[in-house]
Amino acid sequence: MKRLIVTADDFGISPAVNEAVVRAYRDGILRYASLMVDAPAAAQAVSLAKENPGLGVGLHLDLCSGDPAAWGLRYFFFPADRARVEPEIRRQIEKMLSFGLKATHADGHCNIHVHPTVFPTLASLAREYGIPRLRLPGGEAWLCASFERRRVAARLAVAAVFRCLGDGLRPYGTGLAIPERTLGLLRSGLMSEEYFLWLIRHLPEGVSEAYCHPSSDPGSRVVDAPRPGHHTVTELEALLSPRVREALAEEGIGLEAEARPAAR
Predict the structure, then answer these.
(1) Residue 77 CA to chain centroid, in angstroms?
(2) Exposed e or buried b per residue across 243-257, where buried means at least 16 C-beta atoms within 10 angstroms of its C-beta
(3) Within-domain flag for 171
(4) Cα 239 to Cα 101: distance, rounded to the nearest angstrom
(5) Distances from the Cα of 40 to the Cαs of 16, 17, 23, 203, in angstroms?
(6) CB burial class (10 A; 0-12, 13-18, 19+) of residue 83?
(7) DSSP secondary-structure letter at 54?
(8) What residues contact 69, with CB distance under 8 A and at least 6 apart?
């Protein structure tokens, strides 16, 4: 059986992203969104989530302030920064609960949650707070490389790094749901209709997650390179595409969805 989880990251970062999330949920294939609890438009995102209770909302953990490489080094080499990881994750989970939302899943802005000093703590707190699912990017390399040969060496290098991280970190997720593969890292900001169709036609058995960065901004269209922040109307159009929905039906791929649990 093939199952697909479709998630929009950065829920709450802007009104254009919030609008895109709701449109893609109501009229497209989106079933989940990952909320940045401290983002400028988080209050609007929370209101929209409550108006659409079938939309699964998870925590999009932000521990990197837009510079994941610098913060990654700090978490490795500076004990004071490493010590802030557990209380900061807990604070963001508690803030989401204070909004009246309990997370259906958790992941991280710029994939900072996959940092070796972060993921074990996140997994432990996910079990404590009853967050059922986490994301480990990986399993996209051959799908992406066979779709497009440009920049293939750089993409495969990124895939290799995250594959090693995922293999090492997956045991920490014992007791939690972690999709067998995650799609979106290697074409972040370029999850076009054609790429979605390619993924659907070649999706292996099991549970996969595809994550996107949709925006309703008509000026955010992309072709060959992602925009800063990776938010684009191109990805919204892919999520709304009748061709994508038809391909899912033809391939017998079900969309994973779950009722959002009530906040404690």
Answers:
(1) 27
(2) ebbebbeeeebeebb
(3) yes
(4) 24
(5) 12, 11, 20, 36
(6) exposed
(7) T
(8) none
Work out whether strand 32-35 and strand 56-61 pair parallel, antiparallel, or are unpaired: parallel
Q: How far is CA 199 from the centre of its chain?
A: 16
pTM over 0.90: yes
Start-end of H helices in the chain = 15-27, 42-51, 68-77, 79-83, 85-98, 119-129, 141-147, 152-169, 193-202, 233-240, 242-251
Predicted confidence (pLDDT) per residue in 143-201, tens digit: 999 998 888 999 999 999 999 999 999 999 999 999 999 999 999 999 999 999 999 99
Q: Are 135 and 107 in contact (CB under 8 A)?
A: yes
User: pLDDT tens-digit profile of 64-102?
Assistant: 877 878 888 889 899 999 999 999 999 999 999 999 999
Q: 104: domain CATH number?
A: 3.20.20.370
Tell me the two tokens of residue 16. 């254009």
* Residue range of the domain that includes 155: 2-255
222 token code pair: 């992309």
Position 114 in a domain: yes
Instruction: Check if the beta carbon of residue 257 is closer than 8 Å to that of residue 54.
Output: yes
Query: Has residue 264 been placed in a domain?
Result: no
- Number of structural domains (the chain) is 1
- Cα separation of 220 and 258, whole Å? 31
